[in-house]
Amino acid sequence: MSKKFSNLLRGYVIRPKASISISGLGGFKSFLKEKSRTFFVIAFLTPFLAALTIMYGLPCALSVLMSFTDMGLSFELHFLNPLLKNYYTIFHVADPRVPVVAQTTILYVGCTLLINAGFSLVLGVLTAYCIRNENVASVLRLLWFLPRMTPVIIYALLWLWFTDPTYGPLSIVSSWIGLKGVRWLLDKPYSQLLMILVNGYIGASWGMVIYVSSIKTIPLEIIYAAKADGATDWDVIRRIILPLLKWPILFVTSWQTLSLLGSYVEILAIWDGYSYTSGVEVWSLFTYHTAFEGYRFGYSAALAIIMATIALILVAIYFKVFGFKRMLEPSRIEV
Amino acid sequence: MNPQEKKKSLKQNILESEKISRREAISTAGKVAISAVVAGVVAGVGGYLAGSAAAPGRTVTTTVTPPAKTVTVAPTAAAIPIRIWPHAKGYDKYRLENPKDVCAILNNMLAAMGANVKIDFSGTVEEAKLEKVIAAYKAKELPEILGAGHEWVGPFAEGGYIIPIDDYIEKYKLLLTDWFPYAWAWEAMRWKGKTYAVLQDTECRPLYWRRDVLKELGWSDADLDALPEKIRKGEWTMEDAISVAKEAMDKGLVKWGFYHRPTPGAQPMFVFYVQYGGKIGDPDTGKLIADKDAWLKTLELFYKLAVEEKVMPAMAGTSWRTVHTDFVNGRVLFWFGGSWHWAEYQHVAYHEKLGKVPEEWEWEHLGFGLVPAPTKGLEPATNTHPWAFMISSQAKNPEVAFLVAVLQTIPTFDVRHCIYGGKLPSRATTYSHPDFKKNKFLSSIVYMHEYTSVLFNHPKMPVYTRLAFETVTSVEKGEKKPDKAVEDLMSALRAEIGEEIIIRE
Amino acid sequence: MRTAEGYRKLIWKAKIRWLIGNIIVYSIVCIPLVPIILMYGWLIAQAFSGVCISSLIPQKLTLDNFYFLTGPIYWGGTPLYKSYWPLVRNTLLLALGTTGLVVAITSLAGYAISRFEFKGRDPLLKSVVVVHSIPGVLFLIALMYVLNTIGLYGKGFLTLLSVIIIKAGLESPMYTWMLKGFFDSVPWELEWAALVDGCSRFAAWRKVVMPLIFPGIAAVSIFAFLSGWGEYLLVLTYITDRKWYTLSLALSELTYQFKHVDYGMLAAFSLLYLLPAMVFFLLTQKYLMTMRIVAYKG
Fold this sequence. Notes:
The complex is a heterotrimer of chains A (335), B (505) and C (298). Chain A has 335 residues and is mainly alpha-helical. Chain A is 74% helix and 0% strand. Chain A is built from 16 helices and no strands. In chain A, helix 9 packs antiparallel against helix 12. Chain A is flat. Chain A starts with a helix and ends in a 7-residue tail after the last helix. In chain B, strands 1, 2, 3, 4, 7 and 15 form a 6-stranded mixed β-sheet that branches. Chain B has a 4-stranded mixed β-sheet with strand order 9-12-8-13, with helices on both faces. A two-stranded antiparallel sheet of chain C has the order 1-2. Chain C starts with a helix and ends in an 8-residue tail after the last helix. The chains are: A mainly alpha (335), B alpha/beta (505), C mainly alpha (298).
């Protein structure tokens, strides 16, 4: 491929004819080109747009509608008398669980984000750059990816074994460090710490892969040049790699925030039935319980819409702070 | 490069580029054609599906007592479809086999009568889960008979997925005279005063204990054999159990005195609640009930077990594997288990040395009885979770479906299911069936049905169960004292169930 | 002017610094891995044990837990599945179908967004992030409505196909965003050169740009494959024909209410469930590592 390229490039320099022949037919061809360009854009974007409208737009509209009703098991849309009644219930704290759930969610998202966006950055840099042996690095990356690859049921079973009060390694180790008798699944704040760790293991690998791919696209010449100028590894990381990762860092942070706000399946699988007393009931889980245990689909739709709104506000803040406009510009890795 | 070569390479480049462009043009055209074909296929598929969704050949029945509707399948004989989702997995396979055999017999009868109609039976081992039922209902493909736990009668009826069958029960009452003689059996099939389901099987939740551990405490064989009767008469109560457990733990014979289920469920919280006089639901209004006083006493009992006497750990968070392994290996004295665990220990290798334990081992090492009364003066009790066969609102022929559901519970079929699945029967006459009498374990727990209770049929029952479990857990942890916990439980119930629950003092 | 001794000291210092650096790096990466290794070690030990074990040491070593490879899968005494292999086939179909569809949709869309200025570009990009803020709980019910209205319930293979389409659709925005970034990093000049020489845009996209973003495609395909391989909720709700069940459904049936759970077989089953995902990950990781952007080398 590259040989052809160099030929083409060379040909371009000494061959003006080609460009003339294209513009030769003048207006008609450029009109066609314009049309074909639009056709091209539309053709390329159609599957994506279809996915967006059908998979996202429709459910959203439906859920907004549902949140104005008291839809129950019969799945009929009976609109409520004050249309926003569900929202009043939530905001006037008529449900005593809502504030606790909100607090838990803030704690959960904030702390797990440190792992998902922060520690994964460390992992990415270390495995992509510091560990020179590619085989070792890929094995380590595979191990870090294991939690994400495991089906949730199995993952939950494994953690239940790990935290078992009698045989679990966690209990054994915690009795060594003086935390004997701590019930990791039941006692706050240990259960909350566990919740953060459980989800952190899954989230770290995602960010790690993004960072690793981005780091691998950095041309080696720059690093060689820096090294030749006497930079240490730490300098290279600090001055070259990290600045070039600005966009991936923003992306991973904002994306993981949204993912964490909506994640609940692991917590559901492990803390099935006693999530509230253990202090690990996050907003999504609460919505799930309301919908699929209490069959109040209208109320749960309202809960979900509120969370979506908060997520949107967070996204807007992120972009204001990091500059969304810059991200839209073409080439991100300026060499 | 000299000019000659330059010209040549130039020409080559032009040719090459033209070749590329021509080739690319053809391949682009090819790609456009392919995408057009794909789009056409997708459109065709979509059209077909949209068409089949509104297929005219489908007859949809939503009336309650219609005349027999037949769907023409073969040119000669009319066929009545009976589809079933009974949850016949594992040891419950007779939930599918029984209706199948009933339909075969009915078909033979019809053929002998020269009738020009057949029953077309088709069933899977699936259970009728809510999401599947909703999806099937929307696609107008809900099977005739839905098998699920009785707690689903409320949600399904509320959503309009099943129909009341009181008329059929009246019509065929001679087939039902030997039905279970206990009121709760029919209550569990009702919702807001109407019956929606046929009882398929029952089980119960005894208290298991380790005979070998009690022997080491000095109990004789005679004592052990007399224990279930003493519990039944109310002479041996939970207080006695607690002191025995404490003794065993102090002597180091067991790790813990009591274990109960680590996930939300009916036993033992609702068993104690009922023993203390609490009511779970009101059949007249169809609402749930929470008796604050009874819950307070229940929570105080749990507090005593877990925090004061320390004979029971906070069970939430212990895995089922640990629970069963600890009990089977003799590290726990009392276990609030279920009657199906007797068979489970024979089939799953929990014992560290023996693996799967044989039945003789169980008779020697395990004992069982009702859950003792909390204190003297109260009754022993247990809990049952009956299985219901419901007739769906989209059944093509509800009456025939009802007949199939009823006929598959006559003793010949009933006993097959009970023996194989370790369940208790739905008919009183099954008790006297010779095969049933041969099964020692089932025969010895049948008496428990006199003392049992069921959870109430209400869509919000799962929420009630979960909240109760959470409150019990917070008390077991020592996090809350019973009086604070019961206040929190009441307010949580009020918040999550709202007006569907009556809270009494 | 340094002496030989001084040089030796310098080398020593450098060596120690290198060693400490390596120790720090490896401990940061490996110490948090200890719980993972323990847990999966237990899984492996249980898969080869004849009894239910609680420690890491397998007891009653046996290969019997892998019986499902050659015979029906039993649960509670009766066969639940006649054979293991249709389950694998269905799951592979779901995973590979999702991957293929996702790569097709997102590479097309990512390229268009990255290269063209069109009217809806800003909102489209923003929408990618916006839709991700919608919690997953919402979709279950709403999609049930949609699928049932289209009439895709209970149609065997077609339902599986529609699950593939749903999954691909749900995951496309995120991967489009990711690929857009990769497309951005390919300099425009390369395509321009190809276009000027008479390549159609489509060909330029296919032959020039796509090979250069192979790491991106590899990353997207890893995630898409894994999400398809582990899909549970959608399959549970829509696939009614036992012929088209996937491995995740089988797993959930085997742990139903934790009755009659054969822990050994469950562990063996899970191990084999993990294996293809791990293999796929290892294969595509190679691409992530070895591809360099050729054009930069001039």
